[in-house]
Amino acid sequence: MLVERDVIPDTPVVIEYALTDQGRSMEPILKSIEQWWMLLNDSYLLVKSVSHLSHPH
Question: Which stretches make up the HTH hxlR-type domain (predicted)?
Answer without folding.
Answer: 1-45
